[in-house]
Amino acid sequence: MTVTITAEGLKKINPNLLDERARLYASVLEAVRPLADLSTGIRVRHFIAQIAQETGGFRALVESTRYTKPDRLDALFKNVQGPEHARRLVAAGPVAIGNTIYANKNGNGGVESGDGFRFRGRGFMMVTGRANYRNVGAMAGLPLEDQPDLLGEPEPAAKAAAMFWKSRAINSAADANDISMVTFLVNGPARLHLAERRAFLATAQTIWN
Fold first, then answer.
1. Could you give the C-alpha distances from 49 to 121, 146, 157, 169, 172, in angstroms and in order?
2. Which of 97, 104, 168, 183 holds its CA 20 to 30 A away from the CA of 202?
3. Residue 191: how many CB atoms within 10 A of its CB?
4. What is the pTM of this model?
5. pLDDT at residue number 2
6. Residue 197 to residue 126: CA distance in whole angstroms
7. DSSP string for the chain
8. CA–CA separation, 145 vs 162, rounded Å?
9. In whole angstroms, what is the distance from residue 118 CA to residue 19 CA?
10. What does the alpha-carbon distance between residue 99 and residue 114 come to, in Å, rounded to a whole number?
11. Over its length of 209 residues, how does the chain's per-residue pLDDT go in tens digits?
12. Which residues are registered as beta bridge partners of 62?
């Protein structure tokens, strides 16, 4: 049974992943694997499938709020109040977009607080919002609310992801091979991009079995 997280495994998940990044991510994820009790192939592959989706195939540990299409921005976020508002935000740039789309959510203040951009998605689990940074930071023993940029660094991101996984008892759903429930526990009731998560899981099953 294969449970070790290796650079070769991550490269199979995303063949375009740079070798150096694959080695770095594999190293930090393997180091925290015991923290999340990822002791079986099925647990590892569910974990990898989720973080692969959250990071766009391990392409980024920090969410980009750079949007160029106002209609897309308007369609995605309730805080964007119509096409004209979306056009103004696109013109203003990523900071203005981040501060707007995440304003007054997950413990963030209003647009003027700067919390939206400051606490945009980061880490292998793309944690978003001041309250979630605070909670995940407490679990991982990291000062994420005071130093949110830490979550965009591989080692803290890996530890935070492992503690998040453990705190939500996600291994039970993984053991049942219930990707819908795993996704619910990671992403919430919307279960966004479930089809993509299934595809990553299918690939992961050929590596960690």
1. 18, 30, 16, 16, 16
2. 168
3. 15
4. 0.94
5. 79
6. 15
7. ------HHHHHHH-TTS-HHHHHHHHHHHHHHGGGGT--SHHHHHHHHHHHHHHTTTTT-SB-------HHHHHHH-TTS-SHHHHHHHHHH-HHHHHHHHTTTSTT---GGGTHHHHT-SBTTTTB-SHHHHHHHHHHHT--TTT-GGGGGSHHHHHHHHHHHHHHTTHHHHHHTT-HHHHHHHHH-TT-TTHHHHHHHHHHHHTT--
8. 18
9. 30
10. 5
11. 679 999 999 999 999 999 999 999 999 999 999 999 999 999 999 999 999 999 999 999 999 999 999 999 999 999 999 999 999 999 999 999 999 999 999 999 999 999 999 999 999 999 999 999 999 999 999 999 999 999 999 999 999 999 999 999 999 999 999 999 999 999 888 888 999 999 999 999 999 98
12. 122
Output the CA torsion 131→108→117→18 (10° steps): 20
Tokens of 123: 């880490």
- Residue burial 16-53, b: 16+ Cβ < 10 Å; e: rest: ebeeebbebbbebbbebbeebebebbbbbbbbbbbbbb
pLDDT at residue 1, rounded to an integer: 66
Of 165, 123, 155, 193, residue with least CA distance to 201:
193
**Residues listed for the chain:** 209
Token output for 31: 């180091």
